[in-house]
């Protein structure tokens, strides 16, 4: 289902949401949701991925960091029944790709802020140093830390943003300050074996960021995406 088809279905009254790369129809389920009707109503037409996997909660962090609700495997089965389409199927994605932290390319930018570079063994079509397709901006990758037990698994979503890459940010700032053309070589959109995120360490034991910051051994992660609604038209 394209973004246009998704938006048109919403205008016709269908109650749709996006969960990673799935379009789900909650029209019949909205009154059966164990968490209540309110949270469902306020997310019709939205990307609910970060809520579903427990990274965020609807109430926000007004009184400190609010723990999200990590849905069960049974909830995932319900989602599969509600799924009606793949969202923007034509965009290259990867699913369950194994990656490790590239310690050589990752860098600390400030206290508790780090530019993390994850590396796979081969070039991946979905990984780019620079994303020139505006449909991808605002989409996310889902990164999963795999514990020994299913209950130990942690999933978090990190948004695609070209300017969160320090090299690209510095190049653009320099171009603005000097009123010059930026070095076009930095804007390579060729497939890569690296994927990059700039993130904050929230220091939550059940989260993912502190694991990426404090990783001593090269623990593998699984990455999937790009998924979600994004900012493009």
List keywords for this structure.
233 residues, alpha+beta, Flavocytochrome B2, Chain A, domain 1, Elongation Factor Tu (Ef-tu), domain 3, 2 domains, seven-stranded antiparallel beta sheet, 6 helices
Description:
With 233 residues, the protein is of the alpha+beta class. It has two domains: 3-86, Cytochrome b5-like heme/steroid binding domain (Flavocytochrome B2, Chain A, domain 1); 94-227, Translation factors (Elongation Factor Tu (Ef-tu), domain 3, Beta Barrel), CATH 2.40.30.10. The protein has six helices and ten strands; from the N terminus they run αββαααββββββαβαβ. The strands form two sheets. Strands 4, 5, 6, 7, 8, 9 and 10 form a seven-stranded antiparallel sheet that branches. Strands 1-2-3 form a three-stranded antiparallel sheet. The mean pLDDT is 86.
Topology, element by element:
Elements: H1 3-11, E1 16-19, E2 22-25, H2 37-41, H3 49-52, H4 73-82, E3 83-86, E4 94-101, E5 107-110, E6 113-128, E7 140-145, E8 154-159, H5 166-178, E9 191-200, H6 209-214, E10 221-227
Antiparallel strand pairs: 1-2, 2-3, 4-6, 4-10, 5-6, 6-9, 7-8, 7-10
Say what the CATH topology of the largest domain is.
Answer: Elongation Factor Tu (Ef-tu), domain 3
Distance between the termini: 13 Å
Overall number of strands: 10
Main CATH class of the largest domain: Mainly Beta
Mean model confidence by pLDDT: 86
What profile does the largest beta sheet have? 7 strands, antiparallel
State the order of secondary-structure elements, H for helix, E for strand: HEEHHHEEEEEEHEHE
Number of domains: 2
Radius of gyration: 19 Å
Give the class from helix and strand content and strand pairing.
Answer: alpha+beta
Number of helices: 6
- The helix content is 10-25%
> CATH-wise, what's the superfamily of the largest domain?
Translation factors
Low-confidence stretches: none
Strand content: 25-35%
- What CATH architecture of the largest domain do you see? Beta Barrel
Shape: globular
